[in-house]
Specification:
Layout: H1 2-28, E1 68-73, E2 76-81, E3 93-94, E4 97-98
Length: 199
């Protein structure tokens, strides 16, 4: 009887001891991380669950693309289409590189698609591919017929800077002074005034 009681007591203590060991290994063997991963320790960082800051200055964001404007905003790189004149229309070309924008002159905010075409500016103000008339193409100081203000006699040949109203007369068969007939040929018969033109 004594032997049986002793064996029972030993088995009870052994069972309790094994239970304590199992409880200890289950409760204390792992520390919960901030992510709830039982295999990670409490001091594990949360970087893998948050966006990482990518820049501290605009220079950190240079993507070597001339067609974009690169900036660092609140720690993140922002790449937008280049718009140097800030008219709201991105450039169609930057330093010889073709871009996706539509502004044909990104150095002038008055030039962009939909802009009002200025007569006689010699520019393509609305970027439609058509240049407006140049007021004085030959640079002789006299506007052409399309651009001359009221009361101003226009240049009759805006491709030749020796031809304009009041220009010196010559004997080359041209109407340099815009009189309506060749110089020194007042009657327009194809013969120069012999007294004024000597070959």
């Amino acid at each position: 009887m004594t032997t049986a009681r002793s064996s029972t007591t030993k088995a009870l203590f052994l069972g309790l001891g094994l239970g304590l060991i199992l409880w200890s290994s289950t409760s204390c063997g792992h520390r919960q991380s901030v992510h709830g991963d039982p295999d990670a320790s409490e001091d594990a960082t949360a970087d893998d669950s948050a966006d990482t800051l990518t820049c501290s200055a605009d220079s950190d964001c240079d993507d070597d693309d001339p067609c974009t404007s690169d900036s660092c905003e609140s720690g993140y790189c922002v790449h937008s289409l280049a718009d140097a004149d800030a008219d709201g229309y991105p450039a169609s070309e930057v330093d010889g590189t073709s871009c996706d924008g539509t502004d044909c002159d990104d150095s002038d905010p008055s030039i962009h698609p939909g802009a009002e075409e200025e007569p006689c500016s010699g520019r393509d103000d609305d970027c439609d591919g058509v240049m407006s008339t140049v007021e004085d193409a030959d640079g002789d100081g006299h506007p052409n017929a399309d651009c001359a203000p009221d009361g101003v006699e226009p240049d009759c040949d805006d491709t030749d800077d020796s031809v304009y109203p009041g220009a010196p007369l010559q004997c080359d068969g041209l109407d340099h002074d815009c009189s309506g007939h060749p110089d020194r040929d007042e009657d327009d018969d194809g013969h120069f005034n012999a007294e004024l033109c000597v070959d």
